[in-house]
Design goal:
Order of helices and strands: HHHHEEHH
Number of helices: 6
Strand order of the largest sheet: 1-2
Largest sheet: 2 strands, antiparallel
Structural class: mainly alpha
Number of domains: 1
Length: about 120
């Protein structure tokens, strides 16, 4: 799965920059079940994308529904990774995770949050 072509297809399919280090960092934010789900989501997105390319961009309604569901989860974890990435504050400031991002991470990734309990986004 960790081939450069896979990450290139993933980038084309989602519009997000993916790499081995990015995926590994995302996996550290997740529970074991979420890790498995996330990796399956990445594979599924690439599969649907490649299938659509082979059929002139056409997908079935079931594939479109899967695409939407899976892309929401991928986008959610991309947002969590963005929050978890330290940013430079000011011109000479050191890199740190901002207070708003820290609160969002703590609230969302808390074991008591709805998402962590059932693994599905309520979107």
């Amino acid at each position: 799965m960790y081939e450069s072509l896979f990450f290139e297809d993933l980038r084309k399919a989602t519009g997000l920059e993916f790499g081995l280090r990015y995926v590994e960092a995302t996996l550290r934010l997740q529970s074991a079940d979420q890790q498995e789900q996330y990796l399956n989501d990445l594979r599924l997105v690439v599969g649907i994308y490649n299938d659509a390319l082979n059929h002139g961009g056409a997908t079935t309604s079931q594939a479109q529904q899967e695409w939407e569901r899976v892309n929401k989860r991928i986008a959610f974890w991309a947002l969590m990774m963005d929050y978890a990435t330290p940013k430079r504050a000011g011109l000479f400031g050191r890199k740190a995770i901002g207070p708003a991002a820290r609160m969002a991470l703590m609230g969302t990734l808390s074991p008591d949050s709805e998402y962590m309990r059932n693994g599905e986004l309520g979107l």
